[in-house]
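Reply to dn_fold:

You asked what the input looked like. This is it:
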Amino acid sequence: MSPRRSFAPTRRRLALAAAAALLASPASSLAQGSTTRGLSLGAHLMGTSLEVENGDRSGGGGFGLRVGYGFNRIVTGFVHLDGSRVEVQEGQGVGGQWDLAHAEVGARFHFANSLRRLVPYLEVSAGGRSVSVADAQVNGQAVGELSFSGAAVTFGGGLSAYFTRKLALDVSVKLTGGTFSKVDVGPISVNNLDIDAGSARFGVGFTWWPRA
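and this is what came back:
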């Protein structure tokens, strides 16, 4: 028997074993372009607008933070907090610098494929929204500190573009509806109000999966 023939079956077995090892080994995960599982931390800058009682929209900007947990590839639960400064002209009702805040708990639904670096998503959340106005003026009359608060529901969507498997640029749009049900003017509080308000937020930031 020639040496070439004796080594041929051995070479075939080695090639098959190597192929099986590549398929089963963690090296195959190197092709993974993104993750949505486990703990995630996010931060972003925002452009914000606010409309109260079908009035003119006022714009501004702010900053937001997000903590999420991906239960599987599709569903991530999250807590989101943000704050913005919105400049409202006196002729639009209550004039002054409005500090707008959202606090939300929700779920994000990814259209996920771990081999992709671009992952779109939709999300829904519920929580509270508040506004505080320092040195507020109503019809040209100074009223001092003024604040509004109430429940809100948010629908949104966006796109995560991954630099690495665990770090992504995140771009999002959120539309929030609800009412301000409580108003505080100095020491005076008025409850059970129904002041319609809509806010919109456009965010650009980063999301990181530290344990991925």
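The helical segments are 3-24.
Hope that clears it up.
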